[in-house]
Amino acid sequence: MPAVLRRPPGPAPRFLIGNLPLFNSDPLAIYTRWAREFGDIFYYRAAWMDVYFLNHPSLIEAVLVSQSQHFAKDKVIQNSRWFLGEGLLTSEGSGWLRQRRLSQPAFHRERMAAYGRTMAAYAEEMLATWQDADLRDIHPEMIQLTMRIVAKVLFSVEVKADTERVAGALNILMRHTSGGRMILPPVLRHVPVPAMMRVKRAVHELDEIVNRIIRQRRASGEDTGDLLSMLMAARDEDGSGMTDRQLRDEILTFLLAGHETTAVSLSWTWYLLSQHPDVEQKLHQELRQVLDGRTPQLEDLPRLPYADKVVKESMRLYPPAWSLARTVTKEIDLAGYCLPVGANVVMSPWILHRDPRFFEQPEQFNPERWTAETAQRLPRFAYFPFGGGPRLCIGASFAIMEAHLLLATIAQRFQLRLLPGHPVDALPSITLRPRHGMRMSLSKSVTKN
Ligand code: HEM
């Protein structure tokens, strides 16, 4: 048996600091360069942290699925516990499993048709405020739309009046967790600098909104059958229910995780369509043939396969969760190297999705690459926008349906064009936001036969 080596190859470290790609203005370019140079697994030290970067589907499969018991959520997620609390995204072990089982029924297939109706209705409501020749930043529009949807379908509340407050608070939190700040120790939050005070105020704003949702439901005592009702009805073996703090953590997690990523994905989709009129034209043709101007519903989606491919291809080029990471909890051998306890393991859909070993002409936006044959040929985890294994995104089917449905509803009414000169740049924070928003001009599309 070959001896287990200590360290994979990687970039030369600088004195004391090692390598700090997240502090660079373009970390995605650095990771891509290193991945191409050093191969399937590479190592670097970021200040005091050991980082192992995995760049092959089989290694990613090992971490997320077959050896997942050796790993816990990474430092960035651990650092976000002070404001996200112990919701489904951040918790571990038996507490996580219990919450996962409790929440799962809210994502069952039977519920999706009702969710689809809310999605399409809210999209139509937004479109009623859009005019031909409007100039709009499309990203906040997508944020508002997806936030209203997730609050309505999972908690039966209308948050239209709160979307700006939530979005403003989230902007602050995202800025605080982008670039190098992602890895700063949480102790820094106690330093009373203006940036930190803003972050605390943002968390307070979110708490107020979420606590109001809990208070109102407790007061009404109603069982609406939604996720909030399921969480409230849950009982431990000793008969005790979830505390307000536990409910707050879950609701906040679903409110944030359930809208930001889908909005990001749609913003990038509008951008890609505006740059590829040939794709857009095919999409319009499909919408015209199948819908003829009618608002789509869930049942229509199987007859809109091209729209589905557009969504899939957009998530390939711009995966909203651009990187996933774990911390090693039990020493493990991987690809012939020994990964020590406490080491960080990073896996990036951005890098894998643009790897020429798996995708021909990977930089090209080509929805037609998604044939049944591609799906068969592609190794599992060459494409993984929703992660995988036990911590697979619980909202994956929900999100795919939502993106598909909103794309169809909006594209058949409006054509969106990037404003000339508007800078387009991906900001790798917890999600992959468009750094400068997405300023676009709208024109009414004609998709009726
Ligand atoms: C395009 C949209 C979305 C993308 C790309 C996405 C991506 C992801 C990824 C990659 C993970 C796994 C993270 C990891 O393993 O470290 C995750 C987890 C999660 N997502 Fe999503 N997500 C999306 C939409 C949604 C929606 C719509 C919801 C809820 C309605 C949601 C709720 C969650 C939750 C609660 C978790 C934690 C699950 C657990 O650990 O058990 N996501 N998401």
Relevant terms:
single chain; 449 residues; alpha+beta; Cytochrome p450; three-stranded antiparallel beta sheet; 47% helix; 11% strand; globular; binds protoporphyrin IX containing FE
Task: Please describe what this structure looks like.
With 449 residues, the protein is an alpha+beta fold. It has one domain: Cytochrome P450 (Cytochrome p450, Orthogonal Bundle), CATH 1.10.630.10. The protein is 47% helix and 11% strand. Strand 1 and strand 2 form a beta hairpin. Helix 6 runs parallel beside helix 17, helix 7 runs antiparallel to helix 12 and helix 8 crosses helix 9. The relative contact order is 0.17. The model has no long low-confidence stretch (mean pLDDT 91). The site of protoporphyrin IX containing FE has 23 residues, from helix 11, helix 12 and helix 17.
Strand count, sense and closure of the main sheet?
5 strands, mixed
How many E-type strands? 12
The H-and-E topology, N to C, reads as: HEEHEHHHHEHHHHHHHHEEEEHHHEEEE
Please state the structural category.
alpha+beta
> What are the low-pLDDT stretches, counting only 5+ consecutive residues below 50?
none
The hetero molecules present are: protoporphyrin IX containing FE
Report the β-strand fraction as a percent range: 5-15%
Q: How much is the radius of gyration in Å?
A: 22 Å
The shape is globular
